[in-house]
Q: What sequence folds into this?
């Protein structure tokens, strides 16, 4: 395809869509051009001269358009666009991680059936090319884990709390004012955004698809000043960490939750809206990838990287999915946690394997102990609703 010009039909002109448009204009790419842009509201004022439409059919019926880029926030609408593009044999780039997390298996089959590429590196970590690296460099059985900070908004909030002693509400408001967090920030601070990205990463790292509802997911919205003081006294910081790991018996564990990170860990120093991913394997130990995880230009640049890869007929091969010994997903794995609670009923909610530390005062109660992912998954809804906070507490 590299001798041919890509004529793009773009869906969505929000932060990332506009970022892609500006990046293309800035570099003056002569083999990539945005022909038409489909938006939800044609009346919304925009400071660019472009061929806008509010009808998907206008793009799909345009004979000039030979490439689709989908950058909208509606997961079901994104699914319809991507599926339609693949069935029309139009290569497509998507940035919608929620849509991919729910529909990726079907979309892999459609890519094969219609021999058409779907690329989405920008969906997982903004400017960090983690998927391409997992596909090309880590395409063997040496990989043992991928963990990291996959959400820039929650990391920005935690950075302000630990570096500038901001209160949680003030840090959240600042993130919203700067456009890092939405007016309803649940997607970011409750871990859902990180979860969707983790599912996509796991497909490429270990070949296994695990549905979102099977994975323990818990965010930072219940964190309070007592939790922050506990972390500071232990010379640690809370980070919202997405984690997938292959255990020695070919079982796979996954989770998204706060972790008390010690100073000697790479992700301890990942600040503000940046993402950091630690890839660990047999023989090469740890490798660290770091970059901006949010914003129009960083993510727009990642989308452009996917577009130019398609110029050279690049496709994900999903090599790990063809492995005859795919790992088995499990929640049967125990680890140490910090648990701050309010009432005796809160404490009874969790069945600990053991408790190694127990603190009770009038205003602050916590335990440190070992518990399994199975137990946490059973009560994750109640953990979100109660005045409690839980975080993984690694021993090193």
A:
């Amino acid at each position: 395809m590299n001798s041919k010009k890509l004529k793009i039909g773009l869906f969505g002109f929000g932060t990332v869509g506009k970022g892609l448009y500006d990046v293309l204009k800035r570099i003056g790419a002569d083999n990539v051009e945005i022909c038409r842009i489909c938006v939800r509201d044609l009346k919304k004022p925009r400071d660019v001269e472009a061929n806008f439409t509010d009808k998907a059919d206008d793009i799909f019926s345009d004979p000039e358009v030979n490439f689709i880029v989908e950058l909208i926030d509606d997961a079901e609408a994104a699914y319809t666009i991507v599926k339609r593009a693949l069935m029309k044999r139009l290569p497509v780039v998507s940035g919608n991680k929620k849509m991919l997390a729910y529909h990726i298996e079907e979309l892999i089959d459609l890519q094969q059936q219609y021999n058409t590429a779907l690329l989405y590196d920008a969906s997982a970590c903004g400017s960090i090319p983690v998927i391409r690296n997992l596909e090309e460099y880590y395409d063997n059985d040496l990989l043992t884990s991928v963990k990291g900070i996959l959400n820039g908004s929650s990391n920005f909030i935690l950075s302000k709390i630990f570096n500038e002693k901001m209160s949680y509400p003030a840090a959240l408001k600042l993130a919203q004012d700067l456009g890092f967090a939405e007016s309803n920030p649940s997607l970011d601070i409750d871990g859902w955004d990180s979860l969707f990205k983790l599912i996509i990463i796991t497909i490429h790292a270990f070949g296994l698809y695990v549905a979102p509802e099977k994975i323990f997911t818990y965010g930072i919205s219940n964190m309070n000043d007592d939790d922050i003081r506990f972390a500071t006294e232990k010379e640690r910081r809370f980070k919202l960490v997405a984690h997938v790991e292959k255990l020695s018996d070919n079982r796979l564990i996954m989770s998204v939750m706060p972790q008390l990170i010690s100073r000697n860990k790479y992700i301890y120093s990942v600040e503000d809206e940046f993402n950091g991913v630690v890839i660990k394997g047999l023989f090469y130990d740890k490798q660290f990838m770091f970059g901006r995880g949010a914003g129009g230009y960083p993510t727009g640049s990642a989308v452009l990287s996917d577009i130019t890869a398609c110029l050279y007929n690049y496709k994900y091969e999903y090599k790990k999915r063809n492995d005859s010994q795919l790992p088995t997903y499990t929640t049967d794995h125990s680890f140490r946690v910090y648990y701050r609670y309010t009432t005796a009923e809160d404490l009874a909610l969790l069945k600990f394997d053991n408790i190694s530390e127990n603190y009770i005062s009038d205003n602050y109660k916590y335990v440190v102990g070992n518990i399994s992912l199975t137990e946490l998954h059973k009560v994750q809804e109640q953990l979100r609703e109660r005045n409690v906070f839980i975080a993984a507490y690694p021993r090193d």
User: Anything to note?
Assistant: The domain at 134-295+326-392 is CATH 3.30.360.10 (Dihydrodipicolinate Reductase; domain 2). The chain has two domains: 6-120, 134-295+326-392. The CA atoms of residues 146 and 287 lie 10 Å apart. DSSP finds 15 helices and 17 strands in the chain.
